[in-house]
Write a structure and sequence with these properties.
About 60% of the residues lie in helices and about 0% in strands. The protein has about 90 residues and is mainly alpha-helical. The chain has one domain.
């Protein structure tokens, strides 16, 4: 089982967003981190046990649309690799 600490929270890399509104950056960061942890939790609950590298990929993603796709795929795919496929058609 993977235990996540504060160092696992992805950072938003866009300095323009941070310069314009630091509070918005924090909300976006928190939102994406929560979705990423949800993807991993669903995968683990389903017995798909993502590898450390797969968890790092998920946790490092700040693209909300991608996290949404992964969240939905995590509910039905048969492997973590399938969830993370770029060209998975659903």
């Amino acid at each position: 089982m993977l235990i996540l600490g504060p160092e696992a929270v992805p950072r938003v890399a866009d300095p323009v967003v941070a310069a314009v509104n630091p509070e918005e950056e924090g909300r976006t960061e928190g939102w994406c981190a929560g979705r990423a942890r949800s993807v991993i939790a669903i995968l683990e609950e389903r017995g798909l046990d993502p590898t450390d590298a797969e968890c790092a990929t998920i946790l490092g993603t700040t693209d909300d649309a991608m996290l949404e796709r992964w969240l939905r795929r995590a509910l039905k795919e048969s492997s973590t690799a399938r969830v993370l496929e770029v060209d998975a058609s659903h």
